[in-house]
Amino acid sequence: MEIILNVILSVLTGLISSYLFLKYYLKRKRPVISISKYISKVNINGESNYFFKFVNNTDVEIFDVHIELTFYKPFGDFAGRNLQGKDIQLKDNFISYIPFAKDNDLHNLHAMRIRTTEDLEQNWEDESSFIRLTIIAKHSLSGFNKVFVHDYLTKDCITEKKFLSGDELNVN
């Protein structure tokens, strides 16, 4: 009887410790990304480029970073409102690896800028339309994914100013 009790207690202790490990340790092992609230419009070789900036704030590398940029326009029907989406073509919509912030990183490789050459201001149809930036990233240690979404609700977020370097998400 004592052997059975010891086996049950061992299994129960193992299950509890595994649960606590998953709950408190691995839950914190997810990507952390900050997205700028601005869209920077820069003229390159006579062509308008619209830049979006995000920063890897995770304490380790992230990989398999997928980026989607979509125009959404609400339209109504008899049951309520729905969204109609139109993809915006990005120059790079997949980044295989983004390092974490290091003190000796002179080039700020953890801060990324993505761009499109589509004329966002012309394609922004009306005040009810908005742009959604979606970033899906994978943590390098745990392998857990996380989805980050930022909505640009008005054309006022488009600015002629350039992004500041490094962790800064503001423009100057």
Write the layout of secondary structure elements.
Layout: H1 2-25, E1 33-35, E2 39-44, E3 47-56, E4 62-77, E5 80-87, E6 94-98, E7 111-116, H2 120-123, E8 130-139, E9 145-152, E10 158-159
Parallel strand pairs: 2-10
Antiparallel strand pairs: 1-3, 2-3, 3-7, 4-5, 4-6, 4-8, 8-9
Description of the structure:
By secondary structure, the protein is an alpha+beta fold. It folds into two domains: 1-30; 31-159, G protein-activated inward rectifier potassium channel 1 (Immunoglobulin-like). It is 16% helix and 43% strand. It is built from two helices and ten strands. Strands 1, 2, 3, 7 and 10 form a five-stranded mixed sheet that branches. Strands 4, 5, 6, 8 and 9 form a five-stranded antiparallel sheet that branches.
CATH top level class name of the largest domain: Mainly Beta
Number of structural domains: 2
Radius of gyration: 22 Å
Look at the helices and sheets and give the structural class: alpha+beta
The helix content, as a percent range, equals: 10-25%
Query: What fold name goes in the CATH topology slot of the largest domain?
Result: Immunoglobulin-like
pLDDT below 50 for ≥5 consecutive residues: which ranges?
A: none
CATH architecture of the largest domain: Sandwich
**Biggest beta sheet summary:** 5 strands, mixed
Number of strands: 10
Q: Identify the overall geometry.
A: flat
Q: Tell me the fraction of residues in β-strands, as a range.
A: 35-45%
What's the rounded overall pLDDT mean? 93
**CATH homology group of the largest domain:** G protein-activated inward rectifier potassium channel 1
Q: Please give the count of helices.
A: 2
